[in-house]
UniProtKB/TrEMBL annotation:
This is Carbonic anhydrase. It catalyses: hydrogencarbonate + H(+) = CO2 + H2O. The lineage of its organism: Bacteria, Pseudomonadati, Pseudomonadota, Alphaproteobacteria, Hyphomicrobiales. The keyword Lyase applies. Its cofactor is Zn(2+). Binds 1 zinc ion per subunit. It comes from Aquabacter spiritensis. Its EC number is 4.2.1.1. It comes from the Bacteria. Reversible hydration of carbon dioxide. It is an enzyme of class 4 (lyase). Belongs to the beta-class carbonic anhydrase family. GO terms for molecular function: carbonate dehydratase activity; zinc ion binding. InterPro entries: Carbonic_anhydrase, Carbonic_anhydrase_CS, Carbonic_anhydrase_sf. Keywords: Lyase, Metal-binding, Zinc.
Amino acid sequence: MCDCRQNRGHVLSRRSLVLGGATLLTLTCGGRPLRALPLPAEARSAPNDIGGDEALARLMAGNARYQADLPGPTCLSACRAAIATRQYPIAAMVCCSDSRVAPELVFDQDGGQIFVVRVAGNIVDTDGIASLEYAVRELNVPLLLVVGHARCGAVTAAVNVVRDKIEVPGHLTSLVNQIRPAVDAAAPLGGDLLANAIILNARTSARKIADSAPILAPAIAGGRVKLATAIYDLASGAVTLV
């Protein structure tokens, strides 16, 4: 696994997951050779064997680099070779399908670092929950992150339906109906209805994840997996935890 930007100085942490093979690949990342020496089996650990707080800190540090236009060295061919047979993402993320929201760019992460579930309005349906269950159970991600974003078209459509009684065509009705509860909850708050609905919609998805049995709820409640919610600002590039 090649993660030259986030794993410098990484120390093996508590959730040990045995890796096969006596040695790891020797890689070149960002112009620097990375060599993992042979370790005894009991000392081997997966690259994403970190806590949820550390995973979130890495993502937020990456977003700070993105905002400052100071991305770390990109690892391309070497990283592809390293993750071709196995992935170790540090987070599973629910985000919007909006073309302006690209998680690997926004958080300045190489391929293999973020397991992404994307759907308009960053809603969580049965298939999305199943994807997150796979990430938690099979990939051992330490962090689940729901990311809404400013000026979300799906939430805007729901606001238009609720406030202006506008009808939407096709299957957009199903999508809007899943977002409407957040708009209804935001209406009495005053202020910017769309901005408030975007936050509440992201929180609604997070609650669905937290309540999802039999895999996600106990993992979150037991502290094995951290759950967080954030909003991405399209203009500044900033991600804010909410």
